[in-house]
Design goal:
- The chain is built from 17 helices and no strands.
- The protein is an all-alpha fold.
- It has a domain of about 270 residues.
Length: about 400
């Protein structure tokens, strides 16, 4: 494919900073009066989808190439992906579900929440919301549901079935089908919640992220220093365009294309002033803890902060604007504790476990290669037996640690 590229496993400078900006937009949408009129939360979630597609489809494509070159077994690639994905997503997600289930069954919450939580546990929150018309107790889990649905379909398809050369075409077809489906929904059910929550429609953003991950940046470093800020400025202006959120061409075309262009420019030209700005330590840290911050921020209310401070800070009497910063700091503190004491240890444990398996596979493959040395006429049908795994390239574990 002309202009194609093998996605690098190194950390993308500015990636975490961009995600930090996105989670701040979600928080602003939920906490500042009037911010939801511009659909900042939905806009930021679409950016998250593009980021996720760019990162994960790029990693899966690297695995595809390693499998095709007999440097990695499909079984090992699938196992590593699923273990590290589960280590990133499951711990804090199911801990929150367990706490909410306990609250519901103890009589403090509603028993209706049990059904909501059951669908959330199966990563079907978005479909439940559309079918029931009820947002549910853990409604922010709808984005996680869409991502998990996509990767449970995409990972085995990319690793086990497709050739590396076909990946870009499959992503493009998925994006076109998802966009066409959403346009049809706009005309057939203009008031339906499915317009924003439907799985196939949102697969478009993830697939577009993957399409850009597999392309080489066409611009020079000098030109990129202009393209990056223009792309980011265009992204940030989209929520304020009249009817921008309801226009499929803007919402499902221009928006993810700008996000994908920004990402590929940042990956290939990471020394620009904008990337250095996004590499601010505060934004990087927000990006790193953004997963938990996104999940818990709606539960951390002014009433809870009042109880946590033993009534010393009467934040309940403050205006929403005055509550914004204290609630943001409260959410960051909780997310930081989750990252430090729960998420990061589990991620590192999964990294060590899969690294040991990779090392064992490499040693086993080395023995197989030695045993077949001097036998150039090995039948093609036996080449699968000669495959062996290699350890993850530097930076791959960091990529997995920063997934959302």
């Amino acid at each position: 494919m002309p202009g194609s590229v093998v996605p690098s496993s190194r950390r993308i400078a500015g990636f975490d900073g961009l995600r930090g900006l996105a989670v701040l937009l979600v928080f602003t949408d939920h906490r500042l009066p009037g911010a939801d009129a511009h659909f900042l939360g939905g806009f930021a979630v679409h950016i998250f989808f593009v980021l996720s597609g760019f990162l994960i489809i790029g990693m899966l494509h690297r695995d595809q190439i390693a499998i095709a070159q007999c440097r990695l077994s499909a079984r090992q690639a699938w196992r590593t992906f699923m273990i590290r994905r589960a280590a990133r997503i499951f711990p804090i997600y199911y801990l929150i579900l367990a706490i909410m289930l306990f609250i519901s069954l103890s009589g403090i919450g509603s028993h209706r929440d049990v059904l909501d939580l059951a669908f959330s546990g199966l990563f079907l929150t978005n479909e439940y919301i559309v079918a029931s018309g009820h947002w549910g107790a853990f409604n922010q889990a709808w984005t996680l549901a869409i991502e998990e649905q996509f990767y449970l379909l995409a990972a085995p398809l990319l690793i086990l079935a497709l050739r590396p050369r076909a990946t870009w075409a499959v992503c493009a077809a998925t994006a076109l089908i998802g966009a066409a489906w959403n346009v049809w929904l706009c005309f057939a059910f203009p008031k339906s919640m499915a317009l924003g929550l439907d799985s196939l429609s949102n697969f478009t953003y993830i697939a577009i992220g993957g399409m850009f991950a597999l392309r080489r940046c066409p611009s020079s470093v000098r030109l990129s220093s202009w393209i990056q800020p223009i792309s980011l400025a265009g992204l940030l202006l989209i929520p304020f365009i009249p009817d921008g959120a309801s226009n499929p061409a803007i919402r499902m075309g221009i928006q993810p294309a700008l996000a994908g262009l920004l990402l590929v420019e940042m990956r290939d030209h990471g020394g620009t002033w904008l990337v250095r700005l996004l590499e601010n330590r505060g934004l990087i840290y927000l990006g790193r803890i953004s997963y938990c911050l996104y999940l818990v921020h709606q539960f951390l209310s002014a009433d809870l902060l009042y109880l946590w401070t033993a009534g010393l800070v009467n934040i309940k009497s403050w205006t929403p604007v005055e509550q914004f910063l204290p609630l943001l700091l409260f959410s960051v503190c909780v997310a930081s504790c989750s990252w430090r004491w729960l998420e990061q240890p589990v991620i590192l444990a999964a990294k060590r476990a899969t690294a040991r398996a990779d090392k064992d596979g490499q040693q086993s493959g080395a023995v197989t290669t030695f045993a077949t040395a001097g036998k150039p006429d090995v039948p093609q049908s036996r080449t699968r037996a000669l495959r062996f795994t290699v350890p993850a390239e530097p930076g791959t574990a960091q990529d997995y640690a920063n997934l959302l």
